[in-house]
């Protein structure tokens, strides 16, 4: 595995009885990269991440995480990884600062010249937006504040690789924006590689350097949001009316299509609208294709559309 490669997964497979819940998944990630994993429920996202975290033994395939097979990762390896779960069973009587100080103490022995562990507790509390609640009992925190604490616990050891499962569940819009800033800081300034799952496609588009889409245990897409949109037929939709009749046409080249449209129909064209595909459009198209086994439909000519 190249020194800059943090995750290297090839042919990952997980089988329960006669069912493959993960089948042939292959991808990699480099230092400081933010990957967002999308997919419907049951697609294999959680199983894949649990294998990478070393919590589940795979059935087949090759996996290296920070240069180590996670099935054989020791404590020093685990100290380089952070995990933010959907929920964390904490001790309600602990106070925020004392809990983070306690958790951070486990990482001190794994500090290196390159990565000083743990994170300074007061700096960390400020970073996740809990400065005003540093001495509050965990039982008295709101749901969003407890979620911020979950994130702080996940990064207190200054991880080189951070896994997050639905990290912004329960966040209000302001807290979500702060979290996005935090992820970008971790990736850009700390060179932390981040792999997270979310059902919020708008969030995925804002955060991801690359998006991985799983469906039926298979990796069906791997690329930047823009690259994925361009891979789907109908990157843009052109809508227009002629003599009261409405037309809608998907096209990869909306400017050329509109030019040809006006050349053929001129002033008869009214209510022209061009809409580029969103990540949600792309995601739904790719998942539906994977689930149905359908091939992409060919792009039709203007004459075929207006006949």
UniProtKB/TrEMBL annotation:
Q: Which InterPro entries match?
A: AAA+_ATPase, ABC_transporter-like_ATP-bd, ABC_transporter-like_CS, ABC_transporter_ATP-binding, P-loop_NTPase
Note whether Heme occurs among the keywords: no
Q: What Gene Ontology terms describe what this protein does at the molecular function level?
A: ATP binding; ATP hydrolysis activity
Chief place of localization? membrane
Q: Name one GO cellular component term.
A: plasma membrane
Keywords per UniProt: Antibiotic resistance, ATP-binding, Nucleotide-binding, Transport
**Gene Ontology BP term (one):** response to antibiotic
ABC transporter domain spans which residues?
A: 7-241
Gene3D superfamilies found in the cross-reference section: P-loop containing nucleotide triphosphate hydrolases
CDD domains named among the record's database cross-references: ABC_DR_subfamily_A (cd03230)
Superkingdom of this entry's organism?
A: Bacteria
Compartments it resides in: Cell membrane
**Membrane-related topology note:** Peripheral membrane protein
Q: Tell me the protein's name.
A: Multidrug ABC transporter ATP-binding protein
- What organism, scientifically named, is this protein from? Nocardia camponoti
